[in-house]
Design brief:
7-stranded mixed β-sheet, about 200 residues, Rossmann fold, alpha/beta, single chain
């Protein structure tokens, strides 16, 4: 049986990447992490990849100029394509990708908010502030497809609800959100791969 190949893109410490590494190592997720790519040479995710025996690749992806961004996207596409992935997972990748990237691969993104809520950075902190103002009673986590350059939008694969508790501090709430992320990124990857397999098995009309 051919094992699905996953490439992870991450920019930070890599705790969500670690959840996927652990799940593939234990057999909980029937897939192989074939590369971890980061745009941050100091990212902790590189040490996690090395410890798991997975190649860690640093690629420059910065700049605001449109042509600079397109050039960075093209470099990223070439780097990812060399890994022949079945699925690309954004696990804390802190750069907006152009539509060309979304069109090149099946890409799944993890975002710590419910669909349609709090796109962009700092979602956990913003959710807690909204709770303190009495504007939210629960938040959540989602995984979704990335078909284009939209920020934290795209067809939803799976969600998980995380309620607020009366005794919550930001740290307590954030810890529960991270636990939900670690579980959902594994479940979401499984669902995404199943969807890809079903699509490949369906005869084209």
């Amino acid at each position: 049986m051919i094992v699905a190949r996953i490439v992870i893109l991450a920019s930070g410490s890599g705790t969500n990447c670690q959840a996927l590494l652990d799940a593939t190592a234990s057999g909980e997720l029937d897939a192989s992490i074939v590369a971890v790519i980061t745009n941050n040479p100091d990212a902790g995710v590189l040490a996690r990849a090395e410890a798991a025996g997975v190649p860690g690749i640093v690629i420059e992806h910065k700049g605001r100029d449109p042509e600079t961004r397109r050039a960075a996207d093209r470099r990223l596409i070439e780097t990812v394509r060399a890994q022949n992935p079945d699925l690309v997972v954004l696990a804390g990748w802190m750069r907006i990708l152009g539509a060309e990237v979304g069109a090149a691969f099946p890409i799944m993104n993890l975002h710590p908010a419910k669909p349609g809520e709090l796109p962009g950075v700092g979602a956990i902190e913003r959710a807690f502030e909204a709770y303190q103002r009495g504007e939210m009673s629960e938040s959540g986590v989602m995984v979704h497809w990335v078909p284009d350059d939209g920020v934290d939008v795209g067809p939803v694969i799976a969600t998980s609800t995380v309620p607020f508790h009366a005794e919550d501090t930001l740290d307590r709430f954030a810890n529960r959100m991270h636990q939900a992320e670690h579980a959902l990124i594994v479940d979401g990857a499984r669902l995404a791969l199943e969807s890809i397999r079903l699509a490949s098995d369906t005869p084209s009309s």
